[in-house]
Amino acid sequence: MHVRRPSFRSSFSVFVNEIHDNIAKQTLVLPAGAVGKTLGGTPITARNANGAVFVATATNPVLARVNFDNARIVGVEHTVDWRPSQRWSAGTRRTGATRTRTSIRNFFLNGATARGWVGVGPDGVIGTADDRR
Predict the structure, then answer these.
(1) What is the pLDDT along the chain (133 residues), one digit of tens a residue?
(2) What pTM did the predictor assign?
(3) Residue 81, domain extent
(4) Of 77, 81, 114, 129, which residue is 20 to 30 A from 59 by alpha carbon distance?
(5) Residues 129, 84 share a domain
């Protein structure tokens, strides 16, 4: 939907994107015995109890980019441009989509945690008062 006037323009769109074989980053989990072997010529220096592996060049676990899943994104896009006079103008650009509790949780556990933006505190349990924010 579009509205156009000499001093005002607005558009509103609804979209559905279907992505097949979506590329996702996941912690690389390897079996016991992985320490000492190499990944792309870089030695694996540690492995935690969950199987996540580490290399000396990073403090976070190794991430693998994999064709993991299919995704369907439904959302809206809206713009407004207003020119009340020759010297003044105002405008917006906004895109929105639905988010579920699971998608928000996955972002924080798989995205923000891997980037070091958030993390578990000294108790080692996520979702408690001592978490790093």
Answers:
(1) 999 999 999 999 998 989 888 787 889 999 999 999 998 899 999 999 989 999 998 888 998 888 877 888 888 899 999 999 989 999 987 777 777 888 777 777 777 776 777 777 788 777 777 777 6
(2) 0.43
(3) 2-98
(4) 129
(5) no
